[in-house]
Amino acid sequence: MVFQALKNCLWLSCVLRTPKACFWSTASGALIIQSVSNDVYQNLAVEDWIHDHMDLEKQQVLFLWRNSPAVVIGRHQNPWQECNLRLLRQKNIKLARRRSGGGTVYHDLGNINLTFFTTRKKYERMENLKLIVKALKALRPQLDVHVTDRYDILLDRQYKISGTAAKLGRTSAYHHCTLLCNADKFVLSSVLKSPYKGLQSNATPSVPALVKNLFEEDPSLTSEMLLDAVAKEYAMQHEIDHHITLINPADETLLPGISNKTKELQTWEWVYGKTPKFSVSTCLNMAYKDSVVDVKVNMDVKHGRIEVCNIDLPEQWLPPALYSELVKSLTGSKFCPKETTTLVTTLLRVYPQEDELHSRWSLLCENMIRLM
Amino acid sequence: VCIHRVRSCSSIRFIKSKYVCVFDKSALKFSHQQRLFRTSAVSCGQIVQFKLSDIGEGITEVTVKEWYIKEGDSVSQFDSICEVQSDKASVTITSRYDGIIRKLHYSIDDIAFVGKPLVDIEIDASKGVASEEDVVETPPMSHEEHTHQEIKGHKTLATPAVRRLAMENNIKLSEVVGTGKDNRILKEDILNYLAKQTGAILPPSPKAEIVPPLRKAEAVPAAPKDKARKIPLPVSRPIAFSGKDKTEPVTGFQKAMVKTMSAALKIPHFGYSDEIDLTQLVQLREELKPLAEIRGVKLSFMPFFIKAASLGLLQYPILNASLDENCQNVTYKASHNIGVAMDTEQGLIVPNVKNVQVCSVFDIAVELNRLQSLGSAGQLGTSDLTGGTFTLSNIGTIGGTYAKAVILPPEVAIGALGKIQVLPRFNGKGEVFKAQIMNVSWSADHRIIDGATMARFSNVWKSYLENPASMLLDLK
């Protein structure tokens, strides 16, 4: 196994002058590349870049990548529905929205990602998954792994070790999937459990599954071994040399325009703003003094912003002027705890209250923020 | 008049004005005549039903997830029309035609069927109808046959509008460098090519799909030479700027700032500034920094400034007060909750350190560390952001000397601290020495604070900082 690092921009002229063919390697019908970065946004940007700029007619590509802890939701999913955003923020786990469909996954360095780039005509997910299974069996013949018709790979007929998603464009397509080697299952299960109640949406739901790491089946396995095994099988099937080209997703000269793609994937408008329209309908049971105050809250959220906001408070619990200012401020603002905190604390500056009302106001606002 | 207006919105003067309509739609807004020309060219367009092409893998239905266009929008060939999803695959559907969207056959979350109409597009009659080939059955490039020009056996990609532009200006597409996706030739490429021929100056292209930082000037081979040959006289030309104003609604942090500052406007501010010699404090901090580090805390100058302010407020409690809305009552706040202005990605936030009057300098440093890390992570809670009674803004960490800070209601005073500069000063013996000087600018509510009170408070604060040892006498 030979790792070959890319150094010079001799290829630069290749990229711009010829119609997207010969990118890194001229002769072969396929190419295997691996990212040197563990940043989920940079790696997703590489996928975008290859999808948009490479001519896959003459050369298919296999892209190997791993990420530091991150939750990746599908193109049309609702992050509030899919994961525990509070926990993500606390643990500093990144949240990314990919451009392919499908469900939510947790990535860390114990999980490997494989992306198969082809032309749209040659898009064939089953073949790719069978290639992976073949690679795993070649590595460890005793492994009981097979592909289901939902495009999952199961271990011992019950545990999911790989999930799949795909993106199709006008002329190119990609199919990517995960492969659990030694991921932190404890963190995985806690971040993928949403605490938010009362959400109603048509966003693609994830199908929860029992997972297992390949490491648990065979402790001699590492992520690097799995990456290499898949690369070897791919090289064999495409009749190319088994060598992997390393690429740096921060290299703007090699991948012109990549930093813009990386930036776009991190914007709030993409990660949260692309959430399909949804509504929140819940009841806040706030413990106040010696009783419990029930507050019905109904909100419609579109493009990640609160379109409609209704808070049903007991009469005169808060001064009407302050209450209406709260509703007015929330309407049109992001469904986001940071933004809401800023707005409500500002309102308290502008309409200062004595202690009793101040504590009621704080209680209501804290509860509202917890919804986000 | 017509031609003058064309000139002012784009410096493409070598192109005859009637062609402006074809691609420079912004020009149309200025001239009624040209608008008529445009609509008459398009109104006899043909409506084509663009059918959803095969997705592959035998899939027959998909869910429409997002529309990128709406009815009435004009689209070019290859523009994205919508995003559909089928069984974990997200598919971007692009337009096969140039034209105007006349009807969307589905709404979001509807099921769309392969082979059935997706959108109706009104195309220009003169362009003709594209062949109804299925994308998957034929090799990828051939369905674009009608958009290719095979010159010298080399296929060139360009949309019909671009091809016509080239044809009308007697340009061979093979001689034009394409900078679009797939090396497609865009209208900007034609214009650039024309500019080099006539030496006109063009505004920078607003949408370059690939932005290559070229080291070898391969894409633009003969330009410098051409320019030298074809512009004999320097003529002053107005260089048109093609940037557009961008209007967005005020939301979130900006909305909060607007509210706060509008309320602050009601407060009649007065300012008072002074210079503080921090030479001794700088030395003291150097000695204490390692001790704090051992305890796991970063010690800046702020804890000293905050504690000194609290000591001053004990002597002048009116600066820690609040005036009610009708200016009827002044409430002297018991707690010194001193706010610290913080600059974050989103903008200004002001968390406060609670009860500074009973905190040691170290306690304040610990609390500041906590607030700073929460602030940069965007995780400050409402309790940290409310209840402030007095504020300090250390704008000097970014720069500046004197500032005019705006009081944050419902407080009545604020201090802006400039940067610490090393300046020459005279000591008691008339000798020049190196002094660490910082400027402070106070703003106070003149309805209940007078200049003398502010000045005396400032002097107390100043003396504690200039002689840090004196703080020891008054610490509680």
Automatic annotation (TrEMBL), chain A:
GO cellular component, one term: mitochondrion
Organism domain of life: Eukaryota
Catalytic reactions of this protein: N(6)-[(R)-lipoyl]-L-lysyl-[glycine-cleavage complex H protein] + L-lysyl-[lipoyl-carrier protein] = L-lysyl-[glycine-cleavage complex H protein] + N(6)-[(R)-lipoyl]-L-lysyl-[lipoyl-carrier protein]; (R)-lipoyl-5'-AMP + L-lysyl-[lipoyl-carrier protein] = N(6)-[(R)-lipoyl]-L-lysyl-[lipoyl-carrier protein] + AMP + 2 H(+)
Main localization, broad class: mitochondrion
Enzyme class, broadest EC rank: transferase
Keywords: Acyltransferase, Mitochondrion, Transferase, Transit peptide
Localization, UniProt: Mitochondrion
BPL/LPL catalytic domain boundaries: 56-242
Pathway(s) annotated for this protein in UniProt: Protein modification; protein lipoylation via exogenous pathway; protein N(6)-(lipoyl)lysine from lipoate: step 2/2
GO biological processes: protein lipoylation
Gene3D superfamilies: Bira Bifunctional Protein, Domain 2 (3.30.930.10), CO dehydrogenase flavoprotein, C-terminal domain (3.30.390.50)
InterPro entries assigned: aa-tRNA-synth_II/BPL/LPL, BPL_LPL_catalytic, LipoylTrfase_LipoateP_Ligase
One Pfam family named in its UniProt record: LplA-B_cat
GO molecular function, a single term: lipoyltransferase activity
Enzyme Commission number(s) from the entry: 2.3.1.200
Described function: Lipoyl amidotransferase that catalyzes the transfer of lipoyl moieties from lipoyl-protein H of the glycine cleavage system (lipoyl-GCSH) to E2 subunits of the pyruvate dehydrogenase complex (PDCE2). Unable to catalyze the transfer of octanoyl from octanoyl-GCSH to PDCE2. In vitro, it is also able to catalyze the transfer of the lipoyl group from lipoyl-AMP to the specific lysine residue of lipoyl domains of lipoate-dependent enzymes but this reaction may not be physiologically relevant.
Family under the similarity heading: Belongs to the LplA family.
Record's protein name: Lipoyl amidotransferase LIPT1, mitochondrial
UniProtKB/TrEMBL annotation, chain B:
Residues of the Peripheral subunit-binding (PSBD) domain: 157-194
Residue stretches of biased makeup (Basic and acidic residues): 142-153
UniProt-annotated stretches for the region Disordered: 130-154
Keywords associated with the record: Acetylation, Acyltransferase, Lipoyl, Mitochondrion, Phosphoprotein, Transferase, Transit peptide
Main localization, broad class: mitochondrion
Cofactor entry: (R)-lipoate
Family: Belongs to the 2-oxoacid dehydrogenase family.
Protein's name in the database: Dihydrolipoamide acetyltransferase component of pyruvate dehydrogenase complex
